[in-house]
Amino acid sequence: MSDLPARRLLLVHAHPDDETINNGATMATYAASGAHVTLVTCTLGEEGEVIPPELAHLAADRDDALGPYRLGELAAATKALGVTDHRFLGGAGRYRDSGMMGAPQNDRPDSFWQAELDEAAGYLVEVIREVRPQVLITYDPQGGYGHPDHIQTHRVAMRAADLAADPAFRTDLGAAHTIAKIYWNRVPLSVIEEGFARLRALGEDGPFPKIATPEDLPGVVADAEITAVVDGTAHGAAKAAAMRAHATQIAVEGPFFALSNDLGQPLLSTEYYQLVRGAADAPREDDLFAGVKL
Ligand SMILES: [Zn+2]
Q1: Do the beta carbons of residue 50 and residue 103 sit within 8 Å?
Q2: Which InterPro entries does this one have (predicted)?
């Protein structure tokens, strides 16, 4: 599409809230700088646990109404981040949240875990060939922390990047497009340890009953594996607002937050990446588009 901005960033995520937790500051930073930011979310997060007691009835084992509710939360979050191009893979509700690994929901025929890979990737190829992003952000092969929908999101995103570049694949979906750079979400161990130390220093005044460990969080790696850092400090308030928009899933307390497991962790407005495809412009890039010919 020739009327889109020159720099185009695509993010592919499993559930509403993942985009904000992982990339909220990055999305807000690039949107504010005039880049086109496209978010593709693969499920509605129907199987998520609900934090506010007054909304507990939405859960899958009660009203099973969490998906449509989270659609509204995601719309509020993307608005806070300044992101206007948001889609669901194959359309809202095409794939259902698979639940945690080993849960019976993994076997539902409509679950994302059961999706046929090339069919799901085909939906993303259509987006890639329309938007023609230079940069793609998604998860590592473990999906960061082993959730089936995050693993599947990784597979679909990487497969779609390959298929979109193949001129022989689905010519009905538009001209082939090669994404110049692909990044996986990462968190450097030293940064998260420093955040935990800030939480521990609060002692009994801390906002959450317990503090997470690096093993509880997705994508934590040795600092040396980080190849790109996006300083989104100027958009930290937008990220915090977007996190608060996901109220069924996230409890925000100042510079900290917790998911339904009640484990406190730092809210980071600087976000970290590992380049896995394409050429790095520097040992530690500070711009995901660095070196990309526009
Ligand atoms: Zn998720």
Answers
A1: no
A2: GlcNAc_PI_deacetylase-related, LmbE-like_dom_sf, Mycothiol_biosynthesis_MshB
154 annotated as belonging to a binding site for a ligand: no
Token output for 169: 């694949």
| Cα 214 to averaged position of ligand 1 atoms, centre (Å) | 17
What's the rounded Cα separation, in Å, for the pair 29 and 73? 20
pTM for the whole structure: 0.97
pLDDT confidence band for 189 (50 / 70 / 90): very high
Tokens of 246: 């996901």
Dihedral angle sign, alpha carbons of residues 280, 238, 28, 143? positive
Query: Edge to edge, what strands does the sheet with 256-258 contain?
Result: 210-211, 263-266, 256-258, 251-253
The pLDDT of 143-153, averaged and rounded, is: 94
Residue 233 half-sphere exposure toward CB, CA atoms < 13 A: 3
Q: Scan for tokens 């997705």, then name that residue.
A: 218
- Any binding-site annotation on 86? no
Q: What is the DSSP letter of 173?
A: G
Ligand 1 centroid to 171 CA: how many Å? 32
* CA–CA distance, 249 with 260 (Å, rounded to integer): 6
Ligand 1: centre distance to CA 139 (Å): 10
Q: Tell me the CA–centroid distance for residue 107 and ligand 1, in Å.
A: 18
Residue 72 has pLDDT above 60, yes or no: yes
13 is in an annotated binding site: no
DSSP state of 46: T
